[in-house]
Design goal:
Elements (H helix, E strand, L loop, with lengths): L11 H19 L1 H39 L5 H11 L3
Length: 89
């Protein structure tokens, strides 16, 4: 008489992965992940906008400073050239 063969048990990590995917799919269908995705996209857009605004503001300040120095007394252009050369890029 042969003994019945038990189905092979999956390793614990594989069961955890299977459960994780099942829960992820359930949350996606429930709409919870859609809210998370929208919030991440909004956060990235906000950070990009702030970075872009800061770069434009810095460029405008450098331009105004350069114009102010060029309208100053005779040797101010040398200071402006030195300042531009030493500015980090």
């Amino acid at each position: 008489m042969t003994e019945p063969v038990a189905p092979t048990a999956l390793p614990a990590w594989q069961l955890a992965l299977q459960l994780g995917w099942r829960n992820l799919w359930r949350d996606f269908r429930a709409g919870e992940l859609n809210l998370l995705l929208v919030s991440v996209v909004l956060a990235v857009a906000a950070l990009s906008a702030v970075g872009f605004f800061a770069d434009r503001l810095q460029a405008g300040l450098w331009r105004d400073a350069r114009q102010l120095l060029l309208q100053s007394p005779p040797h101010a252009h040398l200071l402006a050239l030195f300042d531009l050369a030493s500015r980090p890029h």
